[in-house]
Amino acid sequence: MQLTLWLHYLLPLAILLACIVLRWQNVPVIDQLRLTVFDLYQQIAPRAYEDVGVRIVDIDERSLATEGQWPWPRTKLSELLYRLRANGASVVGFDMVFAEPDRTSPSRVIDDWPQSTERDRIAEMAKALPDHDQLFAQFIKGTGNVVTAVQLRNGEFDALPRQVGNFSAAGEAGRTLSDFVPVLPSAARNLDIIEAAATGNALVNVSPGQDGVVRRVPLMAAIDHEQPGIGKPVYPTLSLEMLRVLQKAPKTMLVRMSGASGSTRWTNSEGIASVRVGALTIPTDRSGYMWVHFTGHQQDRYLSATDILNGSVGTDILQNKMVLLGTSAAGLLDLRSTPLDRVIPGVEVHAEMLEQMLLEHFLTRPYWAAEVEMLVLLIVGMFFILAVPRLGAVWPAVIGLAIATSAIGISWWAYSHKLVLIDPLYPIVGLAAVYLATSSLGFMRTEGERRQVRAAFANYLSPALVAQLAEHPERLKLGGETRDMTLMFCDVRGFTAISEGFKSNPQGLTRLINRLLTPLSDCILNREGTIDKYMGDCIMAFWNAPLDVENHAHNACDSALAMRHALIKLNDERKQEAEQANEPFLPLNVGIGINCGDCLVGNMGSDQRFDYSVLGDAVNLASRLEGQSKNYGVDVVLGEDVAKRIGNDFALIELDLITVKGKSEALHVFALLGDKDMAASAQFKNFADLHAAMLSAYRARNWDEAENLIAECQQTSSDFAKLGDLYDLYASRIALFKETPPPADWDGVFIATSK
């Protein structure tokens, strides 16, 4: 009995302490629960959009279609910058890094030309022409009020970016900004000549959370490279630096940390409290992050870059505006997720921050918020532990429900009226756990009963969690989501032999790979596909993620045919170039595998680095199909599910019934030969019938009939497809089977022994 009495207090107390420790340690799942509440608040009541003169000049799809593919020549960017400032833009900030020299500069263009007397003569003339990077730097310096970008990253340290805006910290002796702000080992920086010309130089890191959603952005971050007298250099974010330039404020901004003179602090929390730039003070969290209060995507912020260049946007639109130059084009991969938008251009996050600074409208989570939440959990939890054994379960439950309701109400009021973020959910969940423990232990009488109640306690918690996850299913998708997708693998055949010809010219091999992958990638991107990754000479792509794509199997097959045409065009160009240079010509050929199925897609990787990628059995099978393309001598191999989905919209023939390596079940594989016009032609229909008859004869062991049909198929298909390797393969199999017949239970399945 005495043991039972002690359990009434010890077990709930242990649960209460565990809840406090878990909260103190910032366990990722708990953090995600809290952020989900804050996301919900923004979705219910987003910030109202007010036009305070912030504009985004967007390198959008229309700009790329009109002005040419990215990267643009720096001369075009110079013209764009000039027009912006000439039309009255007060400050221009670049959300892009110019780390490499402009390849369109006259002297660099000539570097790619074949050696000749004319080339040398033109090269001498080109020396007199201005370098595009120098010209761009002159425009940056001449127009003034231009902020360039720095991207902090992991990797080997190269050189420090130029530091213009810097910080002076007021706080406890012995503490520096780099003790609190994000610190990364290196940075992607602009060319020296461009950096030196800018009025400011700032970070464009937006730091999404573990679920890939941007909620807060660091106002400053440091590079892990000690400098004499100053320690690790700290750089401002793009919006903060643009605000400094706009105000013509001093280069040194004041950071107030805990323990600064005149500051009040009633907890032991340490860190950063605010940043002052010019006349404005911006509150931050302890790590120097600013919480972004989103309005959601607003098209009124946007101006197309091509409209600036063609002069259709005038001073009435740009006068005294702060302009951010960024991109929304999907192929340039600067897309982010926010609590309100699944996909927006990353530059819009900087625009929203800049608007909030100008409006002095700040969403904050004070340094004391976590301590208050844990204090409420501790006080009310102790009340439950002491009161439930004495008062029973009902009255503490009523009081607890009132406290929970009040916590939610106070949290909502703090957000909607004071723009303060306070988490009501975790204290409520912790108190529910403590209450359930204390009330459950009231039923314990014997050791056996105690074990039963512990099991029941687990059952009580489970329905509550299931109900929450059913209302917010994204909590189960920290790594991704399952979607029906189409996968493609494309690999260059015989690449080893080609690369051997470039042993002494690795740069030439790099140019060749880029020259190949660029048109092939365009074929995919132009048909709503997503490039997952490049693996040397291989492309992995998928459809129907992150956005829904109708008829994604059709789009993948269209892409494969377009890639084949693009490769033919590239080989023709290379052949002419080789003949002109009197060099040997090796054609480039690719094998493509396409498959459909359910896959897990999302952000895969580690806390330090992750990529949006896809996993699943359907992915592995697509890779295996690509490997089989060389065995059958065809360009494109389709899985059975793809063939079923595209029906008669493409010219297909069945290749074989095989078991690929790593799989135990046999599947029908198909070759994609052409488009709908070919499929509808009488010639193809006649050939397809002959091919199907050949397969039937082969699987029925009618070897002589199959050999006769192979000859007819080769003759019939010669006008529109090269299938000699395929029919040679079947002829060799038949010859082998004539000498060594297959077993009686042979069903026509071929077991692949290679990938």
Key features?
755 residues, alpha/beta, 9-stranded mixed β-sheet, 7-stranded mixed β-sheet, 25 helices, 27 strands, flat
Describe how the helices and strands are arranged.
Blueprint: H1 2-24, H2 28-44, E1 54-59, H3 61-67, H4 74-86, E2 91-94, H5 106-111, H6 117-126, H7 132-143, E3 146-153, E4 166-170, E5 183-184, E6 186-188, H8 192-197, E7 200-203, E8 216-218, E9 220-223, E10 234-236, H9 238-247, E11 252-257, E12 272-277, E13 280-283, E14 289-291, E15 302-304, H10 305-309, H11 315-318, E16 322-327, E17 335-336, E18 344-345, H12 346-359, H13 369-391, H14 394-418, H15 425-441, H16 447-471, E19 481-493, H17 495-500, H18 506-525, E20 530-535, E21 538-543, H19 552-580, E22 589-605, E23 610-615, H20 617-632, E24 636-638, H21 640-646, E25 651-659, E26 667-674, H22 676-680, H23 682-699, H24 703-717, H25 724-739, E27 750-751
Parallel strand pairs: 1-15, 1-16, 2-3, 2-16, 3-7, 4-11, 5-9, 22-24, 25-27
Antiparallel strand pairs: 3-6, 8-14, 9-10, 11-12, 12-13, 17-18, 19-21, 19-22, 20-21, 22-23, 24-26, 25-26
